[in-house]
Specification:
alpha+beta, Thrombin, subunit H, 2 domains
Length: about 270
């Protein structure tokens, strides 16, 4: 009798524990939704024309195409940050992989437009500065009028630690209404080379130039590509095998540049752009 009662109590305790765990997981979801709702308007669409010249080593092929990229609005008067690598068609990455054959490849960008949310209305814009090392490019709306843009608040920021839960936000493509998409993951590591970078446990090639937040909505940084200084002994081609390929894999999947570094670089870009 006592043994049966003990088993019933044990099963009851197990069910209560499972219910509590389920409730705990459910309580995390509104936090993610709250972060998305608070910051989604700061994720804007940049349309532009990208021209690629593949250089003589690649047959001299030239290509011009219209591109669309999700970027981060960082000021009320229309300053936008994008991933410089994504903005330029990953030309620097292609040059690294191609080695000497890609030394004269180049990319140019023009005819910038900034769209807010899923609105078809576009603001003319121009590029004002680039930082290839940090993988940041700044674009400014040329005539915002009296419009005050929703933007990321660098002052509402936080440092992150290994194991801490974080939320990243991007937008789906135009075919899916540019819907905001959140990813919840954790900080897996913190690199000190080539600079301080947060390394998420769940990495993605999407979302470069876009923000990462703590669970309570404070910004910790922007997702970036960090091209390694060493790509292999031969500087490209077959030299990408081995250690070079390992470096490239880490570089291509999103790393998080701390917001303090982004803020300092943005101050420098503002000085250039005015």
């Amino acid at each position: 009798m006592h043994r049966r009662k003990f088993r019933i109590m044990t099963l009851g305790g197990l069910l209560l524990a499972l219910l509590a765990a389920g409730n705990g997981n459910a309580q995390q979801q509104p936090d993610v939704a709250q972060v998305v709702n608070a910051h989604q308007e700061a994720l804007v669409t940049v349309k532009y024309v990208l021209s690629l010249n593949m250089g003589q080593g690649m047959g001299g092929m030239e290509q011009e195409q219209e591109n669309e990229l999700t970027c981060s609005m960082v000021s009320a008067d229309g300053l936008v940050i994008c991933s410089n690598n994504d903005l330029s068609g990953s030309i620097d990455l292609i040059k690294r992989i191609s080695g000497p054959a890609g030394s004269d490849m180049s990319a140019t960008t023009k005819d910038f437009k900034v769209l807010i949310g899923n609105s078809p209305d576009a603001y003319d814009a121009e590029i004002v500065a680039r930082d290839t090392e940090l993988d940041l490019a700044w674009i400014r709306v040329t005539d915002p009028g009296d419009h005050s843009f929703a933007h990321l608040d660098f002052s509402n920021s936080a440092d992150a630690s290994i194991g801490e839960s974080i939320i990243t936000i991007r937008r789906a493509g135009s075919s899916f209404g540019r819907t905001p998409v959140a990813t919840q993951t954790h900080i897996g590591g913190i690199s000190s080379k080539p600079r301080k970078l947060y390394i998420p446990q769940l990495q993605s090639m999407n979302g470069k130039g876009l923000p990462a937040f703590t669970a309570d909505g404070r910004i910790i940084g922007l997702m970036v590509t960090q091209l390694p200084e060493e790509m292999g002994q031969s500087g490209g081609g077959m030299g990408m095998l081995g250690a070079g390929m390992a470096n490239l894999q880490d570089a291509m999947f999103g790393l998080i540049l701390p917001i303090a570094d982004v803020a300092r670089a943005t101050e420098r870009a503002n000085e250039v752009g005015h």
